[in-house]
Amino acid sequence: MGMFATISTAADNRAARIAGIGLMLAGIAMFSCGDAIGKYLVSTYSVGQLMFLRAIAALTLLAPMIWRHRGDFLTLDRPGLQVLRVVLSTLEVAAFFWAAGYLPLADVITYYLACPIFVTAGSAIFLRESVGWRRWSAVFVGFIGVIIALKPSAQMVTWPALIALGGSLSFAALMLITRSLRSAPDVVLATTQFIGTFTFGAVLTTFGWVTPGFGDLGLFFLAGVVSIAALMCVNRSLKLAPASVVVPYQYTMIIWAVIFGYLIFDELPAPATLIGATIIIAAGLYIFLREQSLGKIADDVPPVV
């Protein structure tokens, strides 16, 4: 953390923005690496076991920060909403890794790229935020991209694809709630999410525990460590530079998904997936830039684990 603290004190605004972009790119690369590790592990182990052991590694790494900020956990803002956020976070992580066990990594990531589109639609429906015709048009275009990527037909629509799409909807709902809990410390948001996956995973592992070898055990813990390191990078990135500068770089996750999918799992995304991902990214970027121009995006939006 010392390096990040040094970077964050840089007086040169341009240097801070460049550092923010670099940290966002590094964070997304590490998140993508963690996704690939998880996909590899769920081919042998249950999703519950992955969530359980991954959470143990993450909470172990977070322990010093949890102790330092222990007082913040005693004064949680809107505890009911915090619990709902943890439930949604746990469900979307389970949905992601379950779908990744059956689908190419690029397909699962493509469905999750639709999150900004779902958030925009949800903010208008549930939060009563004003959404003009331009952004509604972008939402409509984005849904077309989702449908293209889903490849709807009697033979092609599968339960894993629908579960991945459901996970993306849970992720969007999670982001809407996070907007309301933006003042909560990052360590509280991250810790409660990992406690949720730890608890859910612990329950599921009672129905099918497979004792991992030392190599796979190392991968379980690496997945947790990578997720925390990625979270720190993304958090610091959002504190160094405006969200409008760094958040669009999160779309590089589709590039990593294609690379890891090909190198590790010998997967090549279908043309429909690539076309759908391109449309979704274009619509998402338009929505993001439009909201930024209207002043609706804060510069310190906490990322989701």
Keywords:
305 residues, mainly alpha, 74% helix, 0% strand, globular, disordered C terminus
Give a written overview of the molecule.
It is a single chain. The protein is mainly alpha-helical and 305 residues long. It is built from 13 helices and no strands. Helix 4 crosses helix 9, helix 5 (105-112) runs antiparallel to helix 12 and helix 6 packs across helix 13. The longest helix is centred in the N-terminal third of the chain and has 29 residues, at 13-41. The protein starts with a helix and ends in a 12-residue tail after the last helix.
Counted beta strands: 0
Order of helices and strands: HHHHHHHHHHHHH
Task: Please bin the fraction of helical residues.
Answer: over 70%
Poorly predicted residue ranges: 1-11, 298-305
Q: Look at the structure and give the mean pLDDT.
A: 83
Approximately how much beta-strand content do the residues carry? under 5%
Distance between the termini: 18 Å
Number of helical stretches of at least 4 residues:
13
- Overall body shape: globular
> What Rg is obtained from the alpha carbons, in whole angstroms?
19 Å
Q: What class would the helix/strand composition place it in?
A: mainly alpha
Main sheet: strands, sense, barrel: none
